[in-house]
Amino acid sequence: MEAGPRDTAHDGEEQLSPDGPDDIPGGVTDDGPGADEMVPEVEVELRPQRRLRIWQLAPIVILAAIGSLMFAFPLAFEFGDGGAVVAMLGLLISCCAAGWGMMAARRVGHTWPGLPERGSGRRPDWRVVSGYALLFLGAVVLAVWRVARLR
């Protein structure tokens, strides 16, 4: 026995088609709510919005601050022979913190300006990518040049 509406109409009454009644006044059936009782549907996202929390950001910010101070102090105060090593170590720590921050931001769905969202299927524009690469390369060249001048 299969489940479904039964065609119990008799000879004088309207017959049901296999997929239900053809004409529904007001867009509702007799057993459903009236047109004045209907509430518009509201979409609610069941998953919480992904965002960076303070406990995720704090170690990244602390590591970046320590690394930038290690990079800046030898450059500003001439630490002697070990200054170049401390400055390069600070630069390395700062770059690690930046990479960590970018990975955390990407995980929650943030992207760099001009680049497509993750999973969108679009390819990034080569001009934006080359602009970011040139900017990064320029910063690295300036940092290494400045540290090399300490010697």
Could you explain how this protein is built, in words?
The protein is elongated and about 90 Å long. The chain has 151 residues and is mostly helical.
Give keywords.
single chain, 151 residues, mainly alpha
Residues in helix, %: 40-55%
Distance between the termini: 91 Å
What is the string of helix and strand elements?
Answer: HHH
Shape: elongated
How many individual β-strands?
0
Number of helices: 3
User: Which structural class best describes the helix and strand composition?
Assistant: mainly alpha
Largest β-sheet summary? none
Rounded mean pLDDT score: 76
State Rg.
Answer: 32 Å
Q: Secondary structure elements and their pairing?
A:
Blueprint: H1 54-77, H2 83-107, H3 126-148
Helix pairs in contact: 1-2, 2-3
In a nutshell, what does this entry contain?
By secondary structure, the protein is an all-alpha fold. It is built from 3 helices and no strands. Helix 2 runs antiparallel to helix 3.
